Amino acid sequence: MGIPDVMSGWRVREPGPMRGEPVELAELPVPEPGPSELLVRVRVCGVCRTDLHVAEGDLPVHRGHVVPGHEVVGEVVGWGDEAGSDFGLGDRVGIGWLRQTCGECRHCRRGRENLCPHSRYTGWDVDGGYAEFATVPSAFAHRLPDGYLDEELAPLLCAGIIGYRALMCAEVPEGGRLGIYGFGGSAHLAAQVALARGAEVHVMTRGERARELALELGASSASGAADPPPVPLDSAILFAPVGELVPTALAALDRGGTLAVAGIHLSDIPPLNYQRHLFQERTLRSVTANTRADAREFLEFAGTHRLLVNAMGYSLDEADRALSDLKEGRVTGAAVLIV
Asked: Quick one: pLDDT at residue 1?
């Protein structure tokens, strides 16, 4: 099948609340791969909460009328002259959030390219996967594990990778107790990694079906978002973009515990009480994007530990409905666009 000149794709018309229809389906030119880029025919693209932040303007505009989407599973259909030979025509490939780093700053040299001040991101700085075609620098394209359907792989490429980094940042001790606040696409994958590594997992989330899923996956308890867990926590991860839960999660930590905040956007955090929330060496830290090493480690883990991916499918022309369902808590697990 040849490559057309135009394609269907969604773009951010004007950032704002979903009720104002900030995204629109349009006829767009098929992107040309740069010298070091692959051209990918999109099969599936996950719907991430970061896409919602881009559409609604919670994140500043980096590219006007950007095509959202950064959990892309597709096949290679072309490349630039300098793309190398790691991928061939028809190879299944993944495109994630982190698209480019400088490779030269002190953060990149220290192996912390997620903190590169010159980093660029798919679906924010450059058009992403809510379309029939997308491009990716070959050095930032991901090989994908076998044994998964395309719609199961898509959420792994951001929800899974970021959840994995958040789990590492939470510093769960061996056999420790992990609290998870919010239980969507990223959390339900991170919980499975934690359980496979011997952690005791407690989930606090607003949705009844999400609590049921947490228990089905092996969580020791599942309760409301602001409820105290049944035991003191060694570590916690906040996936819900709700700043009001930060004091709640810190208060649930045992001495020496760590709370990792996994979202790229968070509503305002209420005032903290030093004695109650931070004293006794409790740690509050953020999680920023991921490194390619994180992605490789997580995808290798997924290749050797079959993860259950709870994915709700939508057609490409239903992307606006998928984003609205995500905002209103109607998605259990992860949402994916079948392109």
From this structure: 61
Give me the mean pLDDT over the 238-251 stretch: 97
Distances (CA, A) of 303 to 44, 74, 90, 296: 19, 18, 21, 10
Burial of residue 191 (number of CB atoms within 10 Å: 0-12, 13-18, 19+): buried
Mean pLDDT for all residues in the chain: 97
Question: CA-to-CA distance for 128 and 136, rounded, in angstroms?
Answer: 9
Q: Choose among 73, 37, 26, 72: nearest CA to 51.
A: 72
Q: Is 333 left (phi over 0), alpha (psi -120 to 50) or beta?
A: left
Q: What's the CA angle centered on 105, arms 290 and 68, to 5 degrees?
A: 40
* Cα gap 182→228, rounded to integer Å: 14
191: CB partners within 8 A, 6+ apart = 180, 183, 201, 203, 214, 217, 218, 219
Phi and psi at residue 163, to the nearest 5°: -60, -40
Q: Is the pLDDT of residue 183 over 70?
A: yes
Rounded to two decimals, the pTM is 0.94
pLDDT band at 144 (very low <50, low <70, confident <90, very high): very high
Residue 176: is its pLDDT beyond 90?
yes
Distance CA 61, CA 235 (A): 34
> Domains of the chain (ranges plus CATH)?
6-143+309-338 (3.90.180.10), 161-286 (3.40.50.720)
What pLDDT does 2 receive? 83
